[in-house]
Write a structure and sequence with these properties.
With 324 residues, this protein is α/β, with parallel strands linked by helices. The protein is built from 11 helices and 11 strands.
């Protein structure tokens, strides 16, 4: 390896996702094996402005593969919203003599990487977000763990809903994408799912479905709602008024971001982290590591973040057909 390629910076930015630590571990271990120094930048892009760095060694990432969250911490960074801030952040990277900055996060984090690329910093992005909302990659780190967390909560709620013969409204995360809602709806045996991709909700149609299922002998009901779609508490009140069925809303919120990552998240995170260092060694610049058809590949950074991954599958039909 030529001497000029000797140092990688790594940061986690935006919302944390289970599996981020597995990525950090893979990057550090792969780099260490190949004589590459790794600098960890704490609290996302904010660490560049606050000069909050630390060296990462093979030993320093022991036993983190099973931990949720991120050992590097994460934060939103308003300074990266301005050109002046982007120039300052790029200057810090140059002063650190970083050859490439590995950015682990979602679309906002990778967009920040694009801004640094415009200031002359080489970027390798790794998609870490529970929302699965990056179209360039068929999988984003944290999604499987978030779905499993939601399904576990749904299973517990079903126990009490069944005992009291209630209807449960469960609000899950996902931002503008309905992947978590739909997957947890199928796995949790929901009556219906409400996601942004399908537009406005017909509350009377929803109430009618609940009434029909009750007439068929169903003793409890479950509706999954994607966050930001509507007010889940008001929906519960409206459905109770229209159906006469006691209805309660539960908002899972940031519970879905925490916890030990599943095996799937650990494996894909490890593969992506290794691939990032391989791309660095191959002198590939300004790319995003992606998962496609079972393989770990890469795509141009700017091309990869220009599309939002909305839910467009047919699993919603499965939810509704199997609920009857």
């Amino acid at each position: 390896m030529e001497k000029k390629y000797k140092k990688i910076g790594v940061l986690t930015s935006g919302g944390d996702a289970p599996g981020m630590n597995a990525v950090i571990r893979a990057v550090v271990r792969m780099a260490s094996t190949n004589g590459i120094e790794v600098i960890g930048i704490n609290k996302g892009y904010s660490g560049l402005f606050n000069k909050d760095f630390k060296p990462l060694t093979a030993k320093s990432v022991c036993d983190i593969i099973s931990r949720g969250g991120t050992i590097l911490k994460t934060a939103r960074c308003m300074e990266m919203m301005s050109l002046e801030g982007q120039i300052e952040a790029a200057t810090v990277c140059k002063d650190l003599d970083i050859d490439t900055l590995v950015v682990i996060g979602g679309d906002g984090s990778l967009t920040g990487g694009l801004k640094l690329k415009e200031q002359g910093i080489n970027i390798i992005g790794i998609p870490g977000t529970i929302d699965l909302d990056l179209k360039c990659s068929e999988y984003t780190i944290g999604f499987d763990t978030a779905v499993n967390t939601a399904v576990e909560a749904i299973d517990r709620l079903r126990d009490t809903s069944s005992s009291h013969e209630r209807c449960s409204i469960v609000e899950v995360m996902g931002r503008r994408a309905g992947h978590i809602a739909v997957w947890s709806g199928v796995a949790g045996g929901a009556d219906d799912v409400i996601i942004h991709e399908e537009g406005d909700v017909d509350i009377e149609e929803l109430a009618s479905k609940i009434r029909k299922n009750r007439l068929k002998g169903k003793e409890h009901n479950l509706i999954i709602v994607c966050e930001g779609m509507l007010d889940s508490q008001k929906l519960a009140e409206e459905l109770e008024q229209r159906t006469g069925v006691v209805t309660r809303a539960t908002i899972l919120g940031h519970l879905q971001r925490g916890g030990r990552p599943t095996a799937l998240d650990r494996v894909i995170a490890s593969r992506m982290g290794r691939k990032a260092v391989e791309l660095f060694m191959e002198d590939k610049k300004n790319v995003i590591v992606i998962y496609k058809s079972g393989n770990i590949n890469f795509i141009d950074l700017e091309k990869g973040i220009n599309f939002e991954n909305k839910y467009r599958g047919r699993l919603t039909e499965t939810v509704r057909i199997l609920s009857l």
